[in-house]
From TrEMBL:
<comment type="pathway">
    <text>Porphyrin-containing compound metabolism.</text>
</comment>
<keyword id="KW-0472">Membrane</keyword>
<feature type="transmembrane region" description="Helical">
    <location>
        <begin position="133"/>
        <end position="155"/>
    </location>
</feature>
<keyword id="KW-1003">Cell membrane</keyword>
<keyword id="KW-0479">Metal-binding</keyword>
<dbReference type="GO" id="GO:0006784">
    <property type="term" value="P:heme A biosynthetic process"/>
</dbReference>
<feature type="transmembrane region" description="Helical">
    <location>
        <begin position="106"/>
        <end position="127"/>
    </location>
</feature>
<keyword id="KW-0560">Oxidoreductase</keyword>
<dbReference type="GO" id="GO:0016491">
    <property type="term" value="F:oxidoreductase activity"/>
</dbReference>
<feature type="transmembrane region" description="Helical">
    <location>
        <begin position="243"/>
        <end position="264"/>
    </location>
</feature>
<keyword id="KW-0812">Transmembrane</keyword>
<dbReference type="GO" id="GO:0046872">
    <property type="term" value="F:metal ion binding"/>
</dbReference>
<keyword id="KW-0350">Heme biosynthesis</keyword>
<keyword id="KW-0408">Iron</keyword>
<feature type="transmembrane region" description="Helical">
    <location>
        <begin position="273"/>
        <end position="293"/>
    </location>
</feature>
<feature type="transmembrane region" description="Helical">
    <location>
        <begin position="75"/>
        <end position="94"/>
    </location>
</feature>
<keyword id="KW-1133">Transmembrane helix</keyword>
Length: 328
């Protein structure tokens, strides 16, 4: 069990790295740094010799070789492939555990299926030219993988030794659902290049409530054969997406404050979770404001994705510990 836990923790750390680095790749406009999949211009690495670059650009005349972007994309693929391999190893190791719980028997194989689907989404991200629905799904799939790896690791620990009030469990579940919706809204904002659609705070183009177009903004399917790099929506639709993400942030803030207050009224473990919720909430709010205030600096925007993963980890851990404790 010890080696299983250690490998689980290492896989969890790698998954976090893949999520953050994937955000960095997307935000630095390197998502199509390699126009094919799984290689890059037909290479395992990056074409660098003059004749290799010439051949690559003849094969993909619309995508000249940009080595920095290509390397970012390929490093992300290498990391993601390693993650997939480790998850497969975890699944096989789970069959060797003595007296495993149902979670330890089933969850590793669920992760194998999920990471295979993630591989397909990674391919479609390139072949469908950064289609927002696919790219957002890829982000959500990565965060789901991260959450399940965390749940798996926590399941190898002893159950929480304190009682879990049923109202607290319900509130924590509701908070997790609200956060998941907000993460989707954030992913949709990023993949539609709407992060700067409202350049001012707290207003949007000088008004508190801008004109919106939800029918266009949240149309999931615009057809095939369209290059979605840098977005295809008009400004009004992008403003709608950005503004909705801000509304979601307000809802999340209120929900998490209510959850934190409820946790701080409890003793011991739950009180510590209350402080953790307040900490990750404050971090994410500050990073979110800085993203707009400083006009989307790459490292700050990447940190916003990392903050979302940490926020999710906090709520997943809280829900797992609540469910492992005796309910009153």
């Amino acid at each position: 069990m010890l080696w299983f836990r250690r490998l689980n923790l290492a896989t969890l750390a790698l998954c976090f790295t893949v999520i953050v680095f994937g955000a960095y790749v997307r935000l630095s406009d390197a998502g199509l740094g390699c126009p094919d999949w799984p290689g890059c211009y037909g290479h395992v690495g990056i074409p660098d010799a003059a004749h290799e670059v010439l051949t690559a650009e003849q094969a993909y005349p619309e995508r000249p070789v940009e080595a920095p972007k290509a390397w970012k994309e390929m490093i992300h693929r290498y990391l993601a492939s390693t993650l997939g391999l480790l998850i497969v190893v975890l699944a096989f190791l789970s069959t060797r555990l003595k007296s495993p719980t149902r979670t330890l028997r089933v969850l590793p194989w669920v992760l194998v299926g999920l990471v295979m689907f993630q591989g397909a989404l990674g391919m479609w991200t390139v072949t469908l030219l950064l289609k927002p629905l696919v790219v957002t799904g890829h982000l959500l799939g990565g965060l789901t993988t991260f959450s399940l790896l965390l749940w798996l690791w926590l399941s190898t620990r002893a159950p929480a030794a304190v009682d879990a009030p049923r109202p607290l469990l319900r509130l924590a579940t509701f908070a997790l659902v609200i956060l998941a919706i907000q993460i989707f809204l954030g992913g949709w904002t990023s993949t539609n290049y709407a992060a700067l659609a409202c350049p001012d705070l707290p207003t949007c183009h000088g008004v508190m409530v801008p004109e919106t177009d939800y029918a266009t903004a949240y149309k999931l399917w615009h057809g095939l054969g369209i290059n979605y790099e840098y977005g295809i929506l008009d400004n009004r639709a992008r403003v709608t997406i950005h503004w909705t993400h801000r509304i979601g942030a307000a809802v999340v803030t209120v929900t998490m404050l209510l959850l934190a207050v409820a946790l701080l009224r409890q003793p011991g473990l739950w009180r510590r979770f209350g402080y953790a919720v307040l900490a990750v909430l404050a971090l994410q709010v500050v990073i979110g404001i800085a993203t707009v205030w400083y006009q989307l600096p790459l490292l700050v925007a990447t940190a916003h994705n990392g903050g979302a993963a940490l926020f999710l980890a906090c709520l997943v851990a809280l829900n797992q510990r609540l469910r492992s404790a005796p309910t009153i």
